[in-house]
Amino acid sequence: MAGGATRGYWRRRGWIGCLAVLLTLAGGATGSRASGGLYPALGAAWITPADSGLREIYDPGLGFTAAVGYLWRDRLRAEARLDWFRAKGLPVAPPFVRDPTSRLTLAPLSLIVQYDLGRSSSRPFVSAGGTVWIESERFDYDVAGSRGSQSGTRSEIGLQAGAGVEFRRGFATWRLGARGIFGPRSRQVLRPRGDPLEIDSGSPPSFWTVGLELLLR
Amino acid sequence: MTIDRVSAAGTRCRRDRSARAGIERSRSRLWSLLGTGLLVLLLAGTVRAAPSPEGRIQPLLLRELARVSLHRSPAQPGPTIADAESPNAPDPRIPVDAAGRWICWLTVASDATDPTGALAAQPGLVVDGRSGPTLQVHVAPERLRELSEVPGVIHVGVPLRPVPEIRSEALDDMRVGEFQALGYDGEGVRVGIIDVGFFGYDTRLGGELPPRVEARSFFGSANGSGDIGGGGEVHGTACAEIVHDVAPGASLYLANVATAFDLGNAVDWMVGAGVEVISHSLAWFVGGGDGTGPVDDIVTRASDAGILWVTSAGNFAQNHWAGKYADEDEDGWIETKPGGVEEIQIRSDGQPIHLILLWDRWPTSTDLSFQIELYDGDQILASSEPDYGDYPYAFRELLYTPTTAPVAPAFRIRYIGGDPTGTNLRVFLLGRGSLAPADQVRAGSITVPADSPRTIAVGAYSWRSRELASFSSFGPTLTGLQKPEITGPSGVSTATYGSQAFAGTSAACPHVAGAVALLLSASVQGGIYEARWGDEEIRRMLREAALPLQGSPDPEAVGWGRVRLFLGDEGKSPAARLEAAGIDTPGRLVFRLEDAKGRAPGPLRVYDVQGRLLATVFPSLRLPGRSSYALESGEIRLARGRYWAWEPITGARTAFFWSGP
User: pTM of the prediction?
Assistant: First the structure.
């Protein structure tokens, strides 16, 4: 089966590419200014589906984070973040479908502002920003004696907000934080031919994440 | 230790006092709350006891009153109702008399003085009768408010009306009930129905049709604002009824058309509306018969947009002649049969004779031309020439209305000009009558767009005898494509046509379209997507589930067989039987499986109506050919509702209703 992708996904590829370039440039910049300005961050997070539609099908799991930040004031910084999460699940299927499986890949690309609530070495922070949800789901199944598969990818603008604490241990700065990532749309009908159809059922996808990141500053 | 005990006892006393005080406070709050609640209820009761005049009128009537007032033109003092498309027409649930008055039910208070006198004084009011506190009245809409203010009247509402329970007789044979018991009734699927007319569809809303449908008329109107009734044609309404019988949860989109251009506009509207299945019970005579032509192009466009196009195969198996151009004697008349025979005999009992001649030259045929002529013995009755002349398309039509019944009507095809080498010619006889059996060419009688590989073409069988209908068209197409794909039931009941009066591939097609809608609604649901079945998967499921027809029909004409819903147990032995046998003493739900083949059964799987697996139960008793299972309902916390169980080795399944231990 051919996969489907929304028009929005292709429309936004351009500026997603721009953010990717920014990430690369930041990586180079940290070599010369490791103590301030631009900095990269890497981490891992435990990602939990929050809405019932996703929770029924996918279990929580480990995801990864890469970010590039820019500290332009004492307490204020901007970050471009890319999270990545993949989970396998058992989709809801009619009884005549054998061995249905699904795989969800989620890569929210976010631009957030973080505000530090203190100046000590262990300081709490809050953050919020916009997110381009890039999400893909693939289904595999047996029906009427033949193996079939379908997949779809879509991207939309969403929101995220988080809070946590940043602390320095040894040579490194660490960040322990929780975030909520909120998608804009509910479920769509994926068709082998034709554009996906919007349907009303279900709530917009959302995730909670709890993660630890290493900031190379 | 003692001091400790005293101290502990003292503490306990303080705690008790404190607890008592807390209880007193709680009681006091509780009484306050109860008092306030009673006061609110009393006030609410007072309010309910004296509703405003508006409150005595059913909201539906008020809403329609406001709507028709808005549309009322100064020239029209009151709403006219006869035209259902008029903005003055009220909701179809409100019956209207010939004078445009609304028929309502009036409820009067039992302790009120008899309002008959006050009602008689109402101008223009007609009282049909009274039953207990209810009167049926005819009232002009603008006097509705006045009527509700008559002393003793407590409510004005819409009358309750009977809904005719007319369903296609073929649903059980198609396993529609079994499929719907799985929790799939077409909900979320949009089905488009294209026809020439949907006259009276609005009177079926909420009964034989869903309460709401989307309807557009492209009948001579590019923007969809034409006559949805198609000049009084009810054919589309009957088709919509059948789709609703099979897939009651599906949303219906109705569009009527008159020409291929209208069809294009209707399909564009449906693509934009997200329609996933089209039920098309029409035959077109535009195109080469090889999957090409303007209508087939529209089908391709719809298919590219993800629409599954289900179409009737046609009713022309006995009314079709086809052959290659041959004129051995070079007399200008085409030889239609071996031996130099040029005439095709028609059996007609004085009815109008309607013939259509096609040849495979599309889109235009300016360099090749034929004409069709109708004879009675040596006397020419009619010719297509006067009406068509140099018509640039490979199409000629002849319509003859006899004044006296012809003795031996027959048609001939005349070659006019151009290079006819290898040309395929076809003639369809429309209306009543048929071609003489020896002159019928049944193969290839498929119509457009059933000749398109993108359609699921549907032939017809009798739901009662399960035999192929003799009129059901079939292929192959000129490109050798075998058609139809499947057959559907014919001769079924609809409210539109009456008892067992809807026959033909027109009736068969919406059965299959409804089945496709049911299959589509049983999609695989993930976190962000619902994956619908594609064209290939739907075809495979229909093919797997179809059953052979009775009798000995032409295998070319039946396709995969007669339509049936795919349940995944095809090919399994029907000898196995599973039933919910009851509840045993510990409160377990017991299932009994009987298998004539004596196979060792596997675990029983229990699902909810959403198709979610709730439990896997292993046999508690296993004897040759007989097993039982005991489901601990407490363990899986079965809520009251419908479930079903399935044993995969035998394929046996049963639905059951759990009402509690």
Answer: 0.71
